Amino acid sequence: EWDNIYSFYDPDDCKIKICQDVTTEKREYFELAFLVALGQALLGNYAAAKKMEPVEKYQDMLGKLYRLTVRPPKER
């Protein structure tokens, strides 16, 4: 379910990380992957937690909800 995440900003070393297959096999995704990670870098270390939750009705899977818990401003 996370296969479409090609990049992220790593606040531990302040670097943008891009999956190797984007730089070699999926080059058409490079610009998008870079811009997504750059956006994360500009926002800072804002996420305290990220998780996907199923959305169901009458036992039918309707989709998934991406839940993001934001850190307090002083921790970002």
Can you put this structure into words, describing what you see?
The protein has 76 residues and is α+β, with helices and mostly antiparallel strands. The protein folds into 2 domains: 1-44, no CATH class; 46-76, no CATH class. It has 2 helices and 4 strands. It has helices at residues 20-24, 30-43, and strands at residues 7-10, 15-18, 47-57, 60-70. A two-stranded antiparallel sheet has the order 1-2. The chain has a two-stranded antiparallel sheet with strand order 3-4. A hairpin with a 4-residue loop joins β1 (7-10) and β2. The two termini are 27 Å apart. The mean pLDDT is 82.
Helical coverage, percent range: 25-40%
Proportion of strand residues: 35-45%
Low-pLDDT parts are: none
Largest sheet, spatial ordering of strands: 1-2
Largest sheet: 2 strands, antiparallel
**What structural class do you assign from the helix and strand content?**
alpha+beta
The best one-word shape is flat
Q: For the CA atoms, what is the radius of gyration?
A: 15 Å
Mean pLDDT: 82
Span from first to last CA?
A: 27 Å
The tally of strands reads: 4
Short characterization:
The protein is of the alpha+beta class.
Structural descriptors:
single chain, 76 residues, alpha+beta, 2 domains, two-stranded antiparallel ribbon, two-stranded antiparallel sheet, 2 helices, 4 strands
